[in-house]
């Protein structure tokens, strides 16, 4: 396993995303749990979930897996709804998530996206949870540059450890200003949906992707994931519902690109040349 510095910690090159996990029948849920176990047994040390995922079903699945591992060896991220972003509701949501996850604390607790609650109130509530020891640190998700700047100018806003946005070869907008800004402010970045979500329905797989994957003797999904983590400076959290898929993700960590290959991909999937609107799924 290769590791990166994420959230000031030594973290596996990829994490485990859990959107839609735990929502199927018993056999499917067991297969998903086996996939997570396989990843943890092979060096992955971060899991990302949220109260929104299956309205708690994902967290419950993760909790059933994590109880068999040493909690201090893993980083656990969960997220709360924007309509739970007041100090009182943050505490209520957090305690419910902790119960489902069968743990005493979260390593990171994130505002899933912005809502109507003033950020100052949300920060106050999150800082309270840090002080109680129920979370170690906090962050945000689906924030654009203006959101991040606003956050950083508020009291304790600089304590935000991570921002989690959409990032894949077809959605590169964060490269223009968000990623550089976060690096400058020592804020780790998480990219979700490296495959364009389920079935790549949000990502146009052009022939160059298939041709390059075939030439490198890897799958399209492995190429897409390898591209996202190519610079070893951010975390990607692919969702994994089977051991076979997890094995594929782990193998993608070792895939490398030549400069010519990267230039070719840039030609068909260009870098942003101006500030884009933030893409979300």
TrEMBL record:
GO terms for molecular function: oxidoreductase activity. InterPro entries: AKR, NAD(P)_OxRdtase_dom_sf, NADP_OxRdtase_dom. Residues 13-268 form the NADP-dependent oxidoreductase domain. Gene3D superfamilies: NADP-dependent oxidoreductase domain. It comes from the Bacteria. Pfam families: Aldo_ket_red. Transmembrane segments: none annotated. This is NADP-dependent oxidoreductase domain-containing protein. It comes from Companilactobacillus paralimentarius DSM 13238 = JCM 10415.
